[in-house]
Amino acid sequence: MSRFPTLFKLIGVVLFALVVGAGSAWWMILGAMQASGVQNGPWYTSTAIGSAASDPYTRAQIAFTGLLALNKSEAVYFTATEDSEGRRLQGHCSYEVTGRNLAARWWSITAYGSDYFLIENDADRYSYNVASLGLRFAPIAKWRINISAEEQSSNWLPVKANDFFSLTLRLYNPSPQILGNLEGVGLPEIRRLSCTDEGAAP
Questions:
Q1: All domains in the chain, ordered by first residue
Q2: How far apart are CA 76 and CA 12, in angstroms?
Q3: What percent of the chain has a predicted confidence (pLDDT) above 70?
Q4: What letter does residue 88 receive in the DSSP assignment?
Q5: How many CA atoms lie within 13 A of 44 on its CB side?
Q6: Edge to edge, what strands does the sheet with 156-158 contain?
Protein backbone atom coordinates (compact mmCIF):
# COMPACT_ATOMS: atom_id res chain seq x y z
CA MET A 1 0.00 0.00 0.00
CA SER A 2 1.39 3.35 -1.05
CA ARG A 3 2.33 5.82 1.65
CA PHE A 4 1.80 8.86 -0.57
CA PRO A 5 -1.97 9.33 0.00
CA THR A 6 -1.39 9.31 3.77
CA LEU A 7 1.50 11.73 3.40
CA PHE A 8 -0.57 14.08 1.27
CA LYS A 9 -3.39 13.98 3.82
CA LEU A 10 -0.95 14.78 6.61
CA ILE A 11 0.48 17.71 4.65
CA GLY A 12 -3.05 18.98 3.99
CA VAL A 13 -3.96 18.82 7.67
CA VAL A 14 -0.78 20.69 8.66
CA LEU A 15 -1.36 23.41 6.04
CA PHE A 16 -4.97 23.82 7.14
CA ALA A 17 -3.91 24.17 10.77
CA LEU A 18 -1.30 26.77 9.84
CA VAL A 19 -3.80 28.82 7.84
CA VAL A 20 -6.44 28.70 10.59
CA GLY A 21 -3.88 29.51 13.29
CA ALA A 22 -2.35 32.38 11.34
CA GLY A 23 -5.79 33.73 10.50
CA SER A 24 -6.97 33.75 14.10
CA ALA A 25 -3.74 35.43 15.24
CA TRP A 26 -4.14 38.03 12.49
CA TRP A 27 -7.62 38.97 13.66
CA MET A 28 -6.48 39.12 17.26
CA ILE A 29 -3.60 41.41 16.28
CA LEU A 30 -5.86 43.75 14.30
CA GLY A 31 -8.36 43.85 17.16
CA ALA A 32 -5.81 44.46 19.88
CA MET A 33 -5.77 48.23 19.48
CA GLN A 34 -9.54 48.53 19.17
CA ALA A 35 -10.15 46.37 22.24
CA SER A 36 -8.51 48.94 24.49
CA GLY A 37 -9.17 51.86 22.18
CA VAL A 38 -10.26 55.44 22.70
CA GLN A 39 -12.14 57.23 19.90
CA ASN A 40 -11.84 60.98 19.39
CA GLY A 41 -13.59 62.10 16.20
CA PRO A 42 -11.91 60.26 13.31
CA TRP A 43 -8.88 59.47 15.48
CA TYR A 44 -8.39 56.48 17.75
CA THR A 45 -5.66 55.33 20.10
CA SER A 46 -5.05 52.47 22.49
CA THR A 47 -4.52 53.01 26.19
CA ALA A 48 -2.43 49.81 26.25
CA ILE A 49 0.27 51.11 23.90
CA GLY A 50 3.32 52.24 25.81
CA SER A 51 2.03 50.87 29.11
CA ALA A 52 2.78 47.80 31.21
CA ALA A 53 -0.76 46.59 30.42
CA SER A 54 0.03 45.86 26.77
CA ASP A 55 -0.56 42.20 25.95
CA PRO A 56 1.34 40.06 23.39
CA TYR A 57 -1.23 40.82 20.69
CA THR A 58 -0.88 44.57 21.18
CA ARG A 59 2.90 44.25 21.00
CA ALA A 60 2.58 42.15 17.85
CA GLN A 61 0.30 44.76 16.28
CA ILE A 62 2.83 47.48 17.09
CA ALA A 63 5.65 45.42 15.58
CA PHE A 64 3.61 44.60 12.47
CA THR A 65 2.62 48.20 11.69
CA GLY A 66 6.07 49.57 12.52
CA LEU A 67 4.74 51.79 15.30
CA LEU A 68 7.62 52.44 17.70
CA ALA A 69 5.66 52.95 20.90
CA LEU A 70 7.33 54.92 23.64
CA ASN A 71 6.12 55.23 27.20
CA LYS A 72 2.71 56.95 27.41
CA SER A 73 4.16 59.97 29.16
CA GLU A 74 6.64 60.37 26.30
CA ALA A 75 4.33 59.89 23.33
CA VAL A 76 0.70 59.32 22.38
CA TYR A 77 -0.21 57.88 18.98
CA PHE A 78 -3.54 58.52 17.25
CA THR A 79 -4.53 56.87 13.97
CA ALA A 80 -7.27 57.80 11.50
CA THR A 81 -8.54 55.54 8.71
CA GLU A 82 -11.71 57.59 8.09
CA ASP A 83 -12.57 61.25 7.65
CA SER A 84 -14.61 63.23 10.15
CA GLU A 85 -17.82 62.00 8.47
CA GLY A 86 -16.85 58.36 8.93
CA ARG A 87 -15.86 57.66 5.31
CA ARG A 88 -12.80 55.56 4.48
CA LEU A 89 -9.71 57.57 3.51
CA GLN A 90 -9.11 56.89 -0.18
CA GLY A 91 -6.35 58.10 -2.48
CA HIS A 92 -8.66 59.16 -5.31
CA CYS A 93 -10.23 61.75 -3.00
CA SER A 94 -8.72 65.00 -1.77
CA TYR A 95 -8.84 66.08 1.87
CA GLU A 96 -7.93 68.95 4.12
CA VAL A 97 -6.73 68.35 7.65
CA THR A 98 -7.12 71.40 9.87
CA GLY A 99 -6.54 72.23 13.49
CA ARG A 100 -4.67 74.36 15.96
CA ASN A 101 -1.35 73.81 17.65
CA LEU A 102 -1.45 70.84 20.01
CA ALA A 103 -0.31 70.86 23.64
CA ALA A 104 2.81 68.75 23.20
CA ARG A 105 6.53 69.45 22.96
CA TRP A 106 6.51 68.09 19.40
CA TRP A 107 3.86 66.60 17.14
CA SER A 108 3.59 65.33 13.59
CA ILE A 109 1.08 63.90 11.09
CA THR A 110 2.24 61.12 8.74
CA ALA A 111 0.46 59.35 5.88
CA TYR A 112 0.77 55.58 5.41
CA GLY A 113 -0.43 53.33 2.59
CA SER A 114 -2.64 50.28 3.04
CA ASP A 115 0.55 48.23 3.53
CA TYR A 116 1.43 50.34 6.62
CA PHE A 117 4.52 51.74 4.89
CA LEU A 118 5.33 55.33 3.97
CA ILE A 119 3.90 56.37 0.61
CA GLU A 120 6.67 56.89 -1.95
CA ASN A 121 6.32 60.09 -3.94
CA ASP A 122 8.41 62.38 -6.16
CA ALA A 123 8.03 65.28 -3.74
CA ASP A 124 9.81 63.27 -1.04
CA ARG A 125 7.16 64.44 1.42
CA TYR A 126 5.85 62.00 4.05
CA SER A 127 4.68 64.10 6.99
CA TYR A 128 4.24 67.54 8.49
CA ASN A 129 5.14 68.62 11.99
CA VAL A 130 4.85 71.56 14.32
CA ALA A 131 8.04 73.11 12.90
CA SER A 132 7.39 72.56 9.18
CA LEU A 133 3.93 74.12 9.63
CA GLY A 134 5.55 77.16 11.27
CA LEU A 135 3.79 76.74 14.61
CA ARG A 136 6.65 76.57 17.10
CA PHE A 137 5.98 80.16 18.20
CA ALA A 138 2.32 80.41 17.19
CA PRO A 139 0.39 78.47 19.84
CA ILE A 140 -3.11 79.51 18.71
CA ALA A 141 -2.56 79.68 14.96
CA LYS A 142 -4.74 77.49 12.76
CA TRP A 143 -3.02 75.25 10.22
CA ARG A 144 -4.04 73.20 7.19
CA ILE A 145 -2.58 70.16 5.38
CA ASN A 146 -3.80 69.25 1.87
CA ILE A 147 -3.90 65.52 1.13
CA SER A 148 -4.39 64.19 -2.40
CA ALA A 149 -2.75 62.25 -5.21
CA GLU A 150 -2.61 65.45 -7.28
CA GLU A 151 -0.03 68.08 -6.38
CA GLN A 152 -1.27 71.01 -4.30
CA SER A 153 0.17 74.51 -4.05
CA SER A 154 0.87 74.42 -0.31
CA ASN A 155 1.29 71.97 2.56
CA TRP A 156 0.74 69.02 0.22
CA LEU A 157 0.91 65.49 1.66
CA PRO A 158 0.89 63.06 -1.30
CA VAL A 159 -1.03 59.75 -1.36
CA LYS A 160 -1.59 57.12 -4.06
CA ALA A 161 -4.71 57.45 -6.19
CA ASN A 162 -5.47 53.73 -6.24
CA ASP A 163 -4.95 52.94 -2.59
CA PHE A 164 -6.46 53.40 0.83
CA PHE A 165 -4.38 55.27 3.36
CA SER A 166 -4.27 56.17 7.04
CA LEU A 167 -2.93 59.08 9.05
CA THR A 168 -0.91 58.83 12.25
CA LEU A 169 -0.76 61.73 14.69
CA ARG A 170 2.19 61.51 17.07
CA LEU A 171 2.28 63.69 20.18
CA TYR A 172 5.64 63.73 21.96
CA ASN A 173 5.71 64.78 25.61
CA PRO A 174 1.98 65.56 25.59
CA SER A 175 0.55 67.81 28.30
CA PRO A 176 -1.35 66.36 31.29
CA GLN A 177 -4.52 67.84 29.73
CA ILE A 178 -4.10 65.53 26.74
CA LEU A 179 -3.15 62.45 28.76
CA GLY A 180 -6.12 62.92 31.04
CA ASN A 181 -8.65 63.53 28.27
CA LEU A 182 -7.72 61.40 25.26
CA GLU A 183 -11.32 61.11 24.09
CA GLY A 184 -12.17 64.80 24.47
CA VAL A 185 -9.07 66.85 23.64
CA GLY A 186 -9.39 68.88 20.43
CA LEU A 187 -7.75 66.94 17.55
CA PRO A 188 -7.48 67.88 13.86
CA GLU A 189 -10.53 67.65 11.61
CA ILE A 190 -10.28 65.57 8.43
CA ARG A 191 -12.64 66.89 5.72
CA ARG A 192 -13.13 65.28 2.32
CA LEU A 193 -13.23 67.90 -0.44
CA SER A 194 -13.81 65.94 -3.65
CA CYS A 195 -13.24 62.60 -5.39
CA THR A 196 -12.42 61.60 -8.94
CA ASP A 197 -14.53 59.12 -10.89
CA GLU A 198 -11.85 56.46 -10.36
CA GLY A 199 -13.36 54.08 -7.84
CA ALA A 200 -16.60 54.57 -5.98
CA ALA A 201 -16.25 56.63 -2.81
CA PRO A 202 -18.95 55.58 -0.32
A1: 4-195 (2.60.120.600)
A2: 44
A3: 65
A4: B
A5: 17
A6: 156-158, 142-148, 93-100, 189-195
